[in-house]
Fold:
Amino acid sequence: MINIVLFGKPGAGKGTQAEFLKGKYNLVHLSTGDIFRFNIKNDTELGQLAKTFMDKGDLVPDEVTIKMLQSEVDKNPNAKGFLFDGFPRTIAQAEALDAFLSSKQQEITATIALEADDEILVERLLERGKTSGRPDDQDEEKIRNRYQEYNEKTAPLMDYYKGKNKFYPVNGIGSIEEITERLSKVIESL
Structure:
């Protein structure tokens, strides 16, 4: 079983690459954003709970996020592995994920970070914002704020995985195919 955490700033290409990787390696793609939206839309018990926090503008507590993720893992008992996208975002979440996977005799195989220069990513998002309809992709100040938050919260997480020898940076600039090839080389070397 192969379990990968995919990191990257907004616009780095995580979603695009996750589509290729899940197909190529037969992984179940678990995007916390998608899981939140599904649970809220379908009015699940966890979705209702998450919504109470989101409606107040608060972050959904780790325990709620982790329960949603555990539920998704449990729905896929025959999976060959998981591709975690958007989770973990903090060391506490990484520790909780490690504990949960350990209870299933599994572990994170690798953490792969798509790295790219902020200026290139800002241009990508502003361009994407012209067609995506996402307001957070249309405001350069908001984009830069998202990067600042990513840097502050993700840096300790990178160190956490480096300490476990499970951190792999990958150049996220180039064609989709070139980046997919770089990611594949890392995965196939595991």
The mean pLDDT is 91. The chain has one domain: 2-188.
